[in-house]
Design goal:
- By secondary structure, this protein is mainly α.
- The protein contains 7 helices and 2 strands; from the N terminus they run H-H-H-H-E-E-H-H-H.
- Strands 1-2 form a two-stranded antiparallel ribbon.
- The chain is globular and about 60 Å long.
């Protein structure tokens, strides 16, 4: 647990938080890659499912915009996810000339969610040790971090 004395400088604490965030991100990426490989997906494939679960069905163009990847790469990821049953392409209800990529929540819950269960349980255990005020601070920090990352 990150606990500091009153003598800790803001700069020291900020530096330590940055280093721990870098370590957390690296560990999450590595675990995600290992889990993706277990189900036959590439390193970035499951991140597309996270985007779809977060934003709902998206067009391939929207996925390109969210990821910064080329349209050809996005098509390849969608093809792999569709072949594994994790997404479907459906006509866009707003424009029948387009398709939207929709996550298959059943396949995700059956085949991927169990592989992430240990991570979820560890996180729940850590969060259970925090006060409501600490949880509010953590939630605000993460929200600001995500918002800043997309700017």
């Amino acid at each position: 647990m990150l606990r500091r004395t009153m003598t800790s400088s803001r700069e020291e604490l900020t530096g330590e938080i940055q280093q721990r965030m870098i370590r957390l991100i690296a560990e999450v990426v590595l675990v995600n890659h290992a889990i993706s490989a277990k189900v036959g997906l590439g390193a970035s494939d499951s991140q597309f499912m996270t985007l779809l679960q977060t934003y709902g069905p998206l067009t391939p163009r929207q996925l390109t915009e969210h990821t910064g990847l080329t349209s050809g790469t996005v098509t390849g990821v969608i093809d792999r996810l569709e072949a594994h049953g994790f997404v479907t392409r459906q006509p866009d209800p707003a424009d029948r000339r387009k398709v939207v990529v929709t996550p298959s929540l059943e396949a995700i819950n059956e085949r991927l969610a169990p592989l992430y269960a240990d991570q979820g349980n560890r996180l729940a255990g850590v969060l259970a040790t925090r006060t409501v005020e600490e949880l509010e601070t953590i939630a605000a920090f993460l929200n600001d971090s995500v918002t800043e990352a997309r700017s």
